[in-house]
Amino acid sequence: MEYGFPIGMPVCRRLESKLYEVRSNISAKRIARVIFTIEASYMILLHGFIKKTQKTPKSDLDLALKRKKDIT
Predict the structure, then answer these.
(1) The pLDDT of residue 13
(2) For a FRET experiment, which of 21, 28, 43, 54 has its CA 20 to 30 Å from that of 14?
(3) Helix or strand or coil: residue 36?
(4) What are the residues whose beta carbons fall under 8 Å from the beta carbon of 71, sequence distance 6 or more?
(5) CB–CB of 34/21 below 8 Å?
(6) Is 8 exposed, middle or buried (0-12, 13-18, 19+ CB in 10 A)?
(7) Could you report the per-residue pLDDT of 51-69, keeping only the tens digit for each?
(8) Digit-coded pLDDT (tens) for 26-43
């Protein structure tokens, strides 16, 4: 991410307006995600989790949205 944003798939994807997800394989069977936003040229990490399903869980997305509201 430090080399340029937006970097696009498969490393990063937009979830909704000003909310993005960085994808990372941390082992052969474990996938990590970090949800972030960009504010005033800063990348603000809102939530990180181990992904267990194909779709981003609503609880993880809701937590990131709540934290985003707290900072904006």
Answers:
(1) 86
(2) 28
(3) strand
(4) 37, 39, 44
(5) yes
(6) exposed
(7) 888 888 899 999 999 999 9
(8) 887 888 999 999 988 888
